[in-house]
Design brief:
By secondary structure, this protein is an alpha/beta fold. Helix content is 35%, strand content 15%. The chain folds into 3 domains: 79 residues, no CATH class; 192 residues, Rossmann fold (3-Layer(aba) Sandwich), CATH 3.40.50.1100; 91 residues, Rossmann fold, CATH 3.40.50. It contains 13 helices and 13 strands. A 6-stranded mixed sheet has the order 4-5-13-10-11-12, sandwiched between helices. A 4-stranded parallel sheet has the order 8-7-6-9. The structure holds pyridoxal-5'-phosphate. Pyridoxal-5'-phosphate binds next to α4 and α8.
């Protein structure tokens, strides 16, 4: 059973909280905390800002040792003010699973670690963002939330809204995997299948804002999902003994995770928990939908909409991202790069990691392994480096290739063949 850690929270009626304001990610314009916000007046994402000197004084790093292994252990760096508003389904610290056999083959002296986010509630790291978004919605008095999704975000929003007693409405492209659509419905949300892509769904959510009055929880239009995703960066640094890895491969759709981790590293340095080393941030996309890769290669600051987006790695089929400039900034400032891998390479990587290491990734996670191999081959990653690959969802949420050889009782069995398979 997962319990919310209670020591010292409820006394005095609130969490130790250090939020000072929100800030436009482009212009720096300030916005009041404790009010509902979507984008800034410049139509750009808002970032939550904290009194980091206050956090530094209030929270010695060693104090974490006492706290339960959930993302709420970093509560001083999170926006929720009152403990009763925390909506939780047990957001565990996810394991860093090494791939020793593949590392031995490919990267002598190097390390490949998979941050396995598939263990989180609803089977994906969208739980981190939505736990924070729904907690803040509750704190700020929202009663109905809506979002466009390729599956996992909608499922997480539905689950946390059910938990909080909020209404939820979700719009998916009509080719979203059935398991996601049904999961969303089972968790109490209304789900609509749209004959378009995720950004078409986003337009419907925006239209409904005016008529239905729901709160728009779309990626980066809602300011607190980044804060939830930020905990991936804090957690990773803590797991590595307050070191950062040399390089992080991240399957990038809307980019909340990469923007969130980049923010986490800056905040951790400001409170003195890590030094100034940063991992090289690598954006991984599918060749059939690679707007960030194209913009990175062109040296552009923004990424125009990718036409005819297609890939079976649904979580990264995002033709246009409103936080494009923030993603590209993190990649450039970190000395990283952006790389595309095609669906055949993703499928091969999916099988290779599962069959060799016993770790069933999601296709988006498999894309990071395919990208790692390509980057090792072209020298952008060195074999002695410590690389972290993000596996963002449980492989079990995806349709797998058909398998199974039929046996008919009473007919001869080919034991020799069975022995050969090992
Ligand atoms: C949402 C999602 C992504 C992309 O994450 P962003 O932080 O939005 O870029 C990657 N993989 C999976 C499985 C996802 O659900």
């Amino acid at each position: 059973m997962m319990e919310i850690p209670d020591h010292d929270w409820t006394r005095g009626g609130g969490l130790p909280n250090f939020v000072t304001h929100l800030e436009c990610s482009e212009t720096g314009e300030r916005y009041a905390a404790d009010r509902l916000h979507n984008l800034s007046r410049a139509d750009k994402p808002l970032l939550v800002r904290y009194d980091l000197d206050g956090v530094r004084r209030a929270l010695p790093r060693a104090a974490l040792a006492e706290r339960p292994q959930t993302l709420w252990r970093y509560r001083e760096l999170l926006p929720v003010r009152r403990p009763e508003n925390i909506v939780t389904l047990g957001e565990i610290v996810t394991p860093l699973v090494p791939l020793p056999r593949l590392a031995g083959r490919l990267a002598r002296g190097g390390e490949i670690l998979v941050k396995d986010e598939g263990r989180l509630p609803t089977g994906s790291f969208k739980a981190r963002g939505l736990a924070l978004a729904v907690s803040m919605a509750k704190e700020l008095g929202v009663s109905h939330m809506a979002m466009p999704t390729n599956g996992n975000a909608g499922s997480a929003m539905a689950a946390y809204c059910a938990r909080a007693g909020l209404k939820a409405t979700v719009f998916c492209p009509d080719d979203t995997p059935a398991v996601n659509v049904r999961e969303i419905a089972m968790q109490g949300a209304a789900v609509y299948l749209v004959n378009g892509l995720i950004d078409d769904c986003g337009r419907l959510v925006a239209e409904g804002e005016k008529t239905v009055g729901w709160f728009n929880c779309s990626t980066l239009r809602e300011p607190y999902r980044i804060e939830g995703k930020k905990t991936m960066g804090i957690e990773l640094a803590e797991q590595l003994g307050w070191q950062v890895p040399d390089v992080i491969f991240y399957p990038t759709g809307g980019g909340t995770g990469i923007i969130g981790m980049w923010k986490a590293f800056a905040e951790l340095e400001a409170i003195g928990w890590i030094g100034n080393k940063r991992p090289r941030m690598v954006v991984v996309q599918a060749a059939g939908c690679a707007p960030m890769v194209k913009a990175w290669e062109a040296g552009a600051e923004h990424a125009p909409r990718w036409p005819d987006a297609h890939t079976f790695a649904a979580g990264i089929r995002v033709p246009q991202a409103i936080g494009d400039f923030l993603i590209l900034r993190a990649v450039r400032q970190s000395g990283g790069f952006a790389i595309a891998v095609d669906d055949a390479a993703i499928a091969a990587a999916w099988r290779e990691v599962a069959a060799t290491e016993g770790l069933l990734l999601c296709p988006e996670g498999a894309a990071t392994y395919a990208a790692y191999k390509a980057a090792l081959a072209d020298g952008r990653v060195k074999s002695g480096e410590r690389a972290v690959l993000f596996n963002c969802a449980s492989g079990l949420k995806y349709e797998m290739p058909e398998a199974g050889t039929r046996l008919t009782l009473g007919e001869p069995v080919d034991w020799t063949r069975m022995a050969g398979h090992g």
